[in-house]
Amino acid sequence: MQGDFATGYDHRIDGAGRINLPAQHRRAVPGGSLWVVQLHRDFLTLYTAEGFEALKERLTAYRLQGPKQARTYRKAFGSATPLEVDATGRVLIPKKLREKCGLAGIVKVLGAGNRIELWNLDRYNEVVGDDFEDVDIPEDIF
């Protein structure tokens, strides 16, 4: 299935700003094309071309709800950048976006359903953590 991302990995961004996508994630990227978008201050989001088209439709409808939503729309599309997965499975994350989210060294690559999130590892651990103390998943989800 296109864009069916699951699992999390810790990977290094090299000095040029490239990150190697896990093989499992590469298999879910048809044609080797992705889009990177900053929708949140803490992480970047990668979408397949199909996923990005769906996001565009949702955000276009969302922006009509008011000035705050229109600003969110502009921020999202102002950051949107197409990426190509190279022959070794790496993508080059634009410097400006890396700097905004503090992506350097080891980062968390998190498969999140229809997208991949790229987090500064320390920030991920601070926000998400690794315990299940505050996790409350209803039984019917399983």
Walk me through what this model shows.
This protein has about 140 residues and is of the alpha+beta class. Helix content is about 35%, strand content about 25%. The protein has one domain: 3-Layer(aba) Sandwich (Chemotaxis protein chec), CATH 3.40.1550. The chain is built from 5 helices and 8 strands, in the order E-E-H-E-E-H-H-E-E-H-E-E-H. A hairpin with a 5-residue loop joins strand 3 and strand 4. Helix 2 packs antiparallel against helix 3.
Short overview:
The protein has helices spanning 23-27, 49-63, 67-79, 95-101, 121-127, and strands at 8-13, 18-20, 33-37, 43-48, 81-84, 90-92, 105-111, 116-120. With 142 residues, the chain is α+β, with helices and mostly antiparallel strands.
